[in-house]
Fold this sequence. Notes:
InterPro entries: PsdUridine_s_RsuA/RluB/E/F_cat (IPR042092), PsdUridine_synth_cat_dom_sf (IPR020103), PsdUridine_synth_RsuA/RluA (IPR006145), RsuA_PseudoU_synthase (IPR050343), S4_RNA-bd (IPR002942), S4_RNA-bd_sf (IPR036986), TruA/RsuA/RluB/E/F_N (IPR020094). By secondary structure, this protein is α+β, with helices and mostly antiparallel strands.
Amino acid sequence: xxxxxxxxxxxxxxxxxxxxxxxxxxxxxxxxxxxxxxxxxxxxxxxxxxxxxxxxxxxxxxxxxxxxxxxxxxxxxxxxxxxxxxxxxxxxxxxxxxxxxxxxxxxxxxxxxxxxxxxxxxxxxxxxxxxxxxxxxxxxxxxxxxxxxxxxxxxxxxxxxxxxxxxxxxxxxxxxxxxxxxxxxxxxxxxxxxxxxxxxxxxxxxxxxxxxxxxxxxxxxxxxxxxxxxxxxxxx
Length: 236
């Protein structure tokens, strides 16, 4: 049976080697060959072709999907020049697995990991408005007016409008719901009022939560959860 012919960057992402965006970069850098010919953006192929990326032949692989309760002092990357613990050090997986998005070094909580490059790219893309829920503990409480401001349409983070729901759960702790995930987004929300985030835990990502897992523990996603995620980003 023949494999479907698709855009090359999509085929590479399906192999789990890198994300679709990274695949496009590698193609532009002329680091991808199809049947011995250097590829370009627009090239189409299938898994019946010999596709070499950075000297590595790719193959269609079994897709894997995990949810982890990320601990502190862990990098959401596949390597770290400072030789700190990376998130995949906590996993017993031979297949290359990568995190969907990132949590800061000391931020804990829900993170998904996979070798499905297409799903990873879509769940990370702003246009799909994937919900994230955090619990933050601050060095001081917000005033009533400050809390009202954070729930208004006047907030700007990283030069873009930021829409979120912020609820106080105790004197210095807050639940934050948002559908965007720019660099240090939650911390910058509270920096507006010179508040320092002492601890940050992501309770939920894309409707899935780490509740029931100890820090550093992970589990496979169920078939139902995988289908749910794919429906969220129009893959099925």
